[in-house]
Design brief:
six-stranded antiparallel sheet; MCH/BMMD; MaoC-like_dom; alpha+beta
Length: 143
């Protein structure tokens, strides 16, 4: 889809993806974030969550990948422009399955290209919102 193809209020839903222990360990290795809340079951048991949680940035990365699988901007993408209002509202645990609702919230015409503001709502299998954000993506115009 190109800039002109998006309209305010347009919604998309991604497939789901289950978060695994391997995801958490691999992300810790790549990012260097070995915080005990993510990788130490005994430590995590004594926290308010009672068990290990996924990194917030891992959740963000998974959601980004799920959105990419929608292939909405595959032919028009210029660049990922940024993230606004990112919040992690509930923990994501090993075994949780997350998906995202993507809504076109804003369109900003920049002349020879445009920026689409997508409201992102990530939801787990219990229909709880685990993350919200606005993703901004620079896309080409058709003309």
């Amino acid at each position: 889809m190109f800039f002109e193809d998006f309209s305010l209020g347009m919604k998309f839903e991604t497939a789901g993806r289950t978060v695994t222990e391997a995801d958490i360990v691999n992300f810790a290795g790549i990012s260097g974030d070995w915080n005990s809340i993510h990788v130490d079951e005994e430590f995590a048991r004594r926290t308010r969550f009672g068990k290990r949680i996924a990194h917030g940035l891992l959740t963000l990365a998974i959601v980004s990948g799920l959105i990419t699988r929608l292939r909405m901007t595959e032919d028009s993408l210029i660049a990922f422009y940024g993230i606004d209002r990112l919040r992690f509202t509930k923990p994501v645990f090993i075994g949780d399955t997350i998906r995202a609702i993507v809504e076109v919230e804003e369109k900003d015409d920049k002349g020879d290209y445009g920026v689409i503001g997508f409201k992102i709502t990530a939801i787990n299998q219990r229909e709880e919102i685990v993350m919200v954000a606005k993703f901004k993506t620079a896309v080409r115009k058709r003309i």
